[in-house]
C-alpha cells in the first residue's frame, strides 16, 4: 500500500522502499528506553501545544531551534510566522524556551518569560516580568506606560547584565481580543524596550501567518519586521519521522513501519497539519496493540483528517439533547469570528457559560479528550485546528454569522455593565437594543443567553419601556393641563375684574404648559430632525420663557453644525453631488428624477426627468458640464448641465447600475453593476471602451485614481480589484473584508485608498505598497454604504445602515466628530469644494447640510469627564480615563494627546496666564488606591508632565489663584492642599524653614561624593 502511494505521487520506488525498510527496522527492533515513562502514559499531547515542561517529548525541530538561537545572538527582536497548525507555539514553548533557559546564548544563562497578550497585554506583560525580577508588577507597569526604554534598568536591578527572553505567543490576540489603544500602546512599548540602548531584553513574537497584514498596519512594527522574521514551513520527512517515533520510544512503545509510512504520505505537502497528526497519534495510541501503534488503529481513529472530527462528533452525539445545546453554546463562544482572517480561538471565563450539571458534563467530556483546555476559571479550545476540522462547528458558525456578532457584542456589553455596577448608562438603547431583541427572539436564541446577558437585555428593555411610559405620561399630563386651563378660561370669562385677572393667569398658565410641551418635543427630536427641534425650542421660548424652554433652547447649541435641510424628494435619496463651484447640489433617488438645489437659499431650482426606474447612482464630471446617471434598468444616461437636457442613453448592463465614476480628465466614465461587470465608456464618442470582468458577484463600488491610470472596484465577492486602464488588465487584488466590499474612494492625492465592508469596517490602504494602514469601525452592526474624503484629504466621512454620520481624522486614525439628524439609513455623502459643508441624504428622503468645522469634538475612547478653555480662548482641554486632549478652538482640530497615569481625570484647570495646565485624578468608584491620587502639571516647553504627591485619595477638583502662583486641590481624603508652582520659591521656603545644611551622617547616607552644590547655598 505504501509503495502505491509513492507510485501515485511519482516518487522513486526503490529509494523509498529502502528508506522505509530502514525506518521499520529501527522502530521495530530498538528497545524502548528506560526513561521512567510508562507505556500507560500517552506519549502524544493531542491538540494541546507543548509547554516548556514537555521539552523531553518535543522532537524534530532541532534545526529551527538552532537558527532561532543564532538569530537571537545577533538581534533583539524576532517574529515567528506560521499557519495555524504549523507548530509555532510548540516550537517556541518546548523548543526555544528550554534551550535558552538550559544552555543560554553565547554561553550565558538567560531568564525566560512566556506570555500571551489577552485583553490587556501591558498588564499581562508587567505581571510576567515581575515574576523574574525584584520589581513589582505595579512598578513595571508604570515604567512601561511612562518610558519603556527605562525597563532594562528596572529589570537589571537584581542581575544587571543577565539577558532576558520574552516570548509573546499568539501575538494575533492583540488584533482579536484587545482594543486599538491598548494594542498600539503594547506594540510601541514592546519595540521601545527591545530597541533601547544596552537593553538585555530580547523579544520573540509568535504570530499566525494570516495576521501578517495586520502587523503591517503598524508602521513601527512593519519597520521592525523588515529583517527580523522567520516563516515556519512544514516539517521535512526526517523531522516528521523523529516527531512520530521518538515520543513512542521514550514511552516504551513502537510504531509500525506501515503506520509511519501512511502518516508521512498523508501529510505530504501540507504545512498546517501537526495538531491533526498529534491528535491522530493520540487516538491511535489509545487503540494500540500491546505497546505497538498500528496502522489498523490509525485507520480506526479516522486518520489525519478524520480523527479530530470523529472524536468531536462522537463526543457530541453521545451527549443528551440538553448537553448538546450546551456544547453548541460552548464552542460558538470559544470562537472569535475572523475580520478578514480565519476564525480563531477565544479564551472565555467559566462564568460566561450557563452553570449546571449539563455544562459541567460537557466541559469534562471534551477536556478528558483534550479538545478543550480548562484553567482555574477559564476555558479555551486546545487548538484552532478543531475550528477548521469539525464540520458541525463550522456549520454552526456559518449559519448566522451576523447573529453571532450581535451576540458577541451583547456579551461584551453585559460584561461591561456588570463591571460598572449595573450603571443605567451602560444599557442598550435604540437601534442596538432593537437588533439584540430581534436576534434573541428568533428560534432558540434565548437558550444561548447566559444569566448576565438575559439580565442585561431585560434591564435594557425595561429601561426603554419606562422611558417611553414617562414620555407618554408627560405628554398626557400636559394635554390634560392644557384642556383644563382652556375650560377654566371659558368658565372665568365675563366675571368682571376678577375674571379678567383669572383669565390672564389662565392664559399665562396655558402658555407655560405649551412652552414646556414644545421644549420636551424639541429635545426628543434633536437626534432625528434637528430642523424641527430647533424651531420647537425657539417656539417654546417665544411662547413662555420657562425653565424647560430655556434648557431646550440652550441645548440646541449641540446642533450648531446643522445648516438646514432640503426637502422635495418622494422616497429615498440615493446620490448627492456638489457642483464644482459649490453653489448647486444635485440629487437623485427613488422618484426617478434629477433634482437641482440652490445650496445657499435651500430653494429647489429644477427637476430633470428621463429615467423610468429608480436612479441608484450619479457622478458629475470634474468640469461640471456633464452629469452621468444610472439605475435599475442598467442604462447610463449623460446630461448636459448647461442646457439641463439629456444627451445620451447608453444601454450596456443587464442588471442595475450601482456606482458611476468619472476619470480626472472627464473623458472617461465607468459604471459598476449587479451583473458582475464594469464598463468603461468614452464620454465624447458615447461608446464602450472595454468591459472589465473579474468579480464573481455584484460590483458595488468603483473609483478612479486622481492620475486616471488606475480604476478600483469592490463587490459582494469581498474583493477589491485594482485595474490598469492602459492595458485594461488587473493590477492587483486586495482582500480583508469578510463580507461585502460595499464602497471605495481615493484620497485627493491618490496615495490612500478607503474601502468599506458589510461588517461595519472601513479600511485605509497604502496604494503604492498595497498594504492596510488602519481600520475604522462605523457604529451599529451593518453595512457601511458610502465613503467620502474631504478635498484636503484630512477627513473621511462614513455612513451606513444607521442614521449616524462619522468623521474620521485620517492622519491620527481617530474619530473626529459625528452627526445625527436623519430618521433612517444614510445612503450618500458629499463635501463641498471648500470642504466646510457636508451634505447627507438617505432613506428618509431628506438632504441635510452640516458645517464640518462645527462638528462635536470626538476622540476620547472613554467617558469625557471635564473640559476647560485656556484664558485666551484658543485652546480647549478635555479629559477622560488616562487621557488628556487639547484642541484648537478655531478649527476644531486635535492639537495633542497626553497619557496620564491615573484611571480617571476628574478636573482640569489652566493657570491665569495659560502657561500651566493642571489635572486632578483618581478613580472615585471603586475606591481609589493612593497611587491613583494624582495631580499632574504640564509646563510649556517641557515634553513630560510632572506629578505632585500628597493626597491619599482621589483628587476631585483643582483651581489656580488669580496670580497663578498657587494651585489648590481638593480630594476625597478630606484635605485641600495648596501647591506653589514655582520651584525657586519652594526652595527658598525650604531653606528658610530648615535653616541648616546636611549634617555628616545625612551626607554619608543620602549624598554622593562631592562635588555638588549645597541645596541652600546662595547662588
UniProtKB/TrEMBL annotation:
The UniProt keyword set, sorted, is: Membrane, Repeat, Transmembrane, Transmembrane helix, WD repeat
Q: Which residues cross the membrane?
A: 478-500
Q: Where is the Novel STAND NTPase domain?
A: 43-424
Is Membrane among this UniProt entry's keywords?
yes
Q: Which residues form the signal peptide?
A: none
Please give the PROSITE patterns that the UniProt record associates with this protein: WD_REPEATS_1 (PS00678), WD_REPEATS_2 (PS50082), WD_REPEATS_REGION (PS50294)
InterPro entries, alphabetized: nSTAND1, P-loop_NTPase, WD40/YVTN_repeat-like_dom_sf, WD40_PAC1, WD40_repeat_CS, WD40_repeat_dom_sf, WD40_rpt
Give the WD repeat ranges: 566-607, 608-649, 650-691, 692-733, 734-775, 777-818, 819-852, 948-989
The name of this protein is Novel STAND NTPase 1 domain-containing protein
Amino acid at each position: 500500500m505504501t509503495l502505491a502511494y509513492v507510485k501515485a505521487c511519482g516518487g522513486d520506488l526503490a529509494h523509498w522502499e529502502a528508506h522505509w525498510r530502514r525506518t521499520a527496522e529501527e522502530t521495530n527492533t530498538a528497545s524502548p528506553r528506560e526513561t521512567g515513562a510508562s507505556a500507560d502514559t500517552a506519549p502524544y499531547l493531542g491538540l494541546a501545544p507543548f509547554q516548556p515542561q514537555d521539552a523531553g517529548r518535543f522532537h524534530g525541530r532541532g534545526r529551527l531551534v538552532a537558527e532561532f538561537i543564532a538569530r537571537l545572538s545577533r538581534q533583539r527582536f524576532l517574529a515567528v510566522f506560521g499557519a495555524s497548525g504549523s507548530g509555532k507555539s510548540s516550537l517556541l514553548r518546548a523548543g526555544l524556551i528550554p534551550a535558552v533557559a538550559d544552555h543560554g546564548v553565547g554561553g550565558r544563562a538567560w531568564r525566560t518569560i512566556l506570555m500571551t497578550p489577552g485583553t490587556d497585554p501591558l498588564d499581562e506583560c508587567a505581571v510576567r516580568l515581575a515574576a523574574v525580577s525584584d520589581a513589582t508588577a505595579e512598578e513595571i507597569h508604570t515604567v512601561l506606560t511612562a518610558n519603556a526604554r527605562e525597563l532594562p534598568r528596572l529589570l537589571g536591578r537584581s542581575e544587571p547584565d543577565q539577558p532576558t527572553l520574552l516570548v509573546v505567543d499568539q501575538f494575533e490576540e492583540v488584533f482579536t481580543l484587545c482594543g486599538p489603544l491598548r494594542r498600539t500602546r503594547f506594540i510601541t512599548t514592546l519595540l521601545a524596550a527591545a530597541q533601547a540602548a544596552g537593553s538585555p531584553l530580547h523579544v520573540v513574537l509568535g504570530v499566525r501567518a494570516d495576521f501578517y497584514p495586520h502587523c503591517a498596519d503598524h508602521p513601527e512594527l512593519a519597520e521592525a519586521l523588515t529583517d527580523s522574521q522567520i516563516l515556519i514551513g512544514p516539517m521535512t520527512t526526517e523531522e516528521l519521522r523523529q516527531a512520530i517515533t521518538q515520543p513512542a520510544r521514550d514511552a516504551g512503545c513502537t510504531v509500525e513501519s506501515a503506520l509511519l509510512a501512511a502518516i508521512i504520505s498523508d501529510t505530504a505537502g501540507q504545512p498546517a497539519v501537526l495538531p491533526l497528526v498529534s491528535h491522530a497519534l493520540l487516538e491511535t495510541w489509545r487503540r494500540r496493540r500491546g505497546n505497538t501503534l498500528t496502522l489498523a488503529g490509525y485507520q480506526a481513529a479516522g486518520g489525519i483528517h478524520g480523527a479530530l472530527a470523529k472524536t468531536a462528533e462522537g463526543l457530541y452525539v453521545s451527549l443528551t439533547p440538553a448537553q448538546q445545546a450546551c456544547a453548541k453554546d460552548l464552542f460558538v463562544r470559544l470562537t472569535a469570528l475572523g475580520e478578514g482572517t480565519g476564525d480563531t480561538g477565544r479564551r472565555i471565563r467559566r462564568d460566561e457559560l450557563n452553570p449546571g450539571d449539563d455544562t459541567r458534563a460537557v466541559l469534562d467530556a471534551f477536556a478528558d479528550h483534550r479538545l478543550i483546555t480548562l484553567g482555574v476559571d477559564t476555558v479555551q479550545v486546545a487548538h484552532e485546528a478543531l475550528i477548521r476540522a469539525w464540520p458541525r462547528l463550522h456549520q454552526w458558525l456559518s449559519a448566522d454569522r451576523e447573529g453571532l456578532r450581535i451576540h458577541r457584542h451583547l456579551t461584551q456589553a453585559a460584561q461591561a455593565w456588570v463591571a460598572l455596577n449595573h450603571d443605567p448608562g451602560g444599557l442598550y438603547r435604540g437601534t442596538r437594543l432593537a437588533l439584540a431583541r430581534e436576534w434573541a427572539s428568533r428560534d432558540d436564541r434565548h437558550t444561548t443567553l447566559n444569566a448576565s446577558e438575559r439580565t442585561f437585555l431585560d434591564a435594557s428593555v425595561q429601561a426603554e419601556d419606562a422611558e417611553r411610559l414617562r414620555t407618554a405620561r408627560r405628554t398626557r399630563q400636559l394635554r390634560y393641563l392644557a384642556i383644563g386651563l382652556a375650560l377654566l378660561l371659558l368658565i372665568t370669562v365675563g366675571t368682571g375684574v376678577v375674571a379678567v385677572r383669572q383669565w390672564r393667569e389662565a392664559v399665562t398658565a396655558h402658555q407655560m404648559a405649551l412652552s414646556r410641551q414644545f421644549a420636551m418635543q424639541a429635545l426628543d427630536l434633536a437626534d432625528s430632525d434637528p430642523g424641527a427641534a430647533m424651531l420647537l425650542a425657539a417656539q417654546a421660548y417665544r411662547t413662555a420663557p420657562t425653565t424647560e424652554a430655556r434648557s431646550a433652547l440652550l441645548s440646541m447649541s449641540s446642533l450648531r453644525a446643522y445648516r438646514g435641510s432640503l426637502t422635495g424628494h418622494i422616497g429615498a435619496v440615493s446620490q448627492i453631488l456638489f457642483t464644482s463651484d459649490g453653489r448647486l447640489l444635485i440629487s437623485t433617488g427613488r422618484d426617478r428624477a434629477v433634482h437641482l438645489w440652490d445650496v445657499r437659499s435651500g430653494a429647489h431650482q429644477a427637476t430633470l426627468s428621463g429615467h423610468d426606474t429608480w436612479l441608484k447612482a450619479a457622478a458629475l464630471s470634474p468640469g461640471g458640464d456633464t452629469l452621468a446617471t444610472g439605475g435599475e434598468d442598467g442604462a447610463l444616461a449623460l446630461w448636459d448641465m448647461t442646457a439641463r437636457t439629456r444627451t445620451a442613453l447608453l444601454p450596456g448592463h443587464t442588471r442595475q447600475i450601482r456606482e458611476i465614476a468619472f476619470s480626472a480628465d472627464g473623458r472617461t466614465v465607468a459604471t459598476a453593476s449587479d451583473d458582475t461587470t464594469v464598463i468603461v465608456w468614452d464620454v465624447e464618442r458615447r461608446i464602450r471602451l472595454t468591459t472589465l470582468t473579474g468579480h464573481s458577484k455584484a460590483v458595488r463600488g468603483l473609483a478612479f485614481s486622481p492620475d486616471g491610470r488606475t480604476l478600483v472596484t469592490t463587490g459582494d465577492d469581498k474583493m477589491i480589484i485594482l485595474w490598469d486602464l492602459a492595458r485594461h488588465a488587473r493590477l492587483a487584488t486586495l482582500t480583508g473584508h469578510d463580507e461585502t466590499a460595499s464602497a471605495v474612494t481615493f484620497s485627493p492625492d491618490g496615495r490612500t485608498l478607503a474601502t468599506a465592508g458589510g461588517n461595519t469596517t472601513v479600511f485605509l490602504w497604502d496604494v503604492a505598497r498595497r498594504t492596510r494602514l488602519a481600520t475604522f469601525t462605523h457604529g451599529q452592526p451593518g453595512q457601511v454604504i458610502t465613503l467620502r474624503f474631504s478635498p484636503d484629504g484630512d477627513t473621511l466621512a462614513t455612513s451606513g445602515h444607521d442614521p449616524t454620520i462619522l468623521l474620521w481624522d485620517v492622519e491620527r486614525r481617530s474619530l473626529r466628530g459625528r452627526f445625527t439628524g436623519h430618521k433612517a439609513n444614510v445612503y450618500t455623502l458629499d463635501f463641498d469644494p471648500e470642504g466646510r459643508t457636508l451634505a447627507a441624504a438617505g432613506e428618509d428622503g431628506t438632504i441635510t447640510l452640516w458645517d464640518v468645522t462645527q462638528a462635536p469634538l470626538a476622540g476620547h475612547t472613554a467617558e469625557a469627564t471635564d473640559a476647560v478653555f485656556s484664558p485666551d480662548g484658543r485652546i480647549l482641554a478635555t479629559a477622560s480615563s488616562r487621557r488628556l486632549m487639547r484642541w484648537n478652538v478655531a478649527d476644531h482640530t486635535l492639537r495633542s494627546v497626553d497619557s496620564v497615569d491615573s484611571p480617571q481625570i476628574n478636573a482640569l484647570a489652566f493657570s491665569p496666564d495659560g502657561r500651566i495646565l493642571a489635572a486632578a485624578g483618581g478613580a472615585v468608584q471603586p475606591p481609589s488606591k493612593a497611587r491613583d491620587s494624582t495631580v499632574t502639571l504640564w509646563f510649556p516647553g517641557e515634553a513630560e508632565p510632572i506629578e505632585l504627591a500628597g493626597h491619599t485619595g482621589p483628587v476631585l477638583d483643582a483651581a489656580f489663584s488669580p496670580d497663578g502662583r498657587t494651585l489648590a486641590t481638593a480630594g476625597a481624603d478630606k484635605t485641600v492642599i495648596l501647591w506653589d508652582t514655582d520651584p525657586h520659591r519652594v526652595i527658598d521656603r525650604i531653606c528658610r524653614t530648615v535653616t541648616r545644611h546636611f549634617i555628616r551622617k545625612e551626607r554619608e547616607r543620602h549624598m554622593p561624593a562631592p562635588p555638588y552644590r549645597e541645596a541652600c547655598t546662595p547662588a
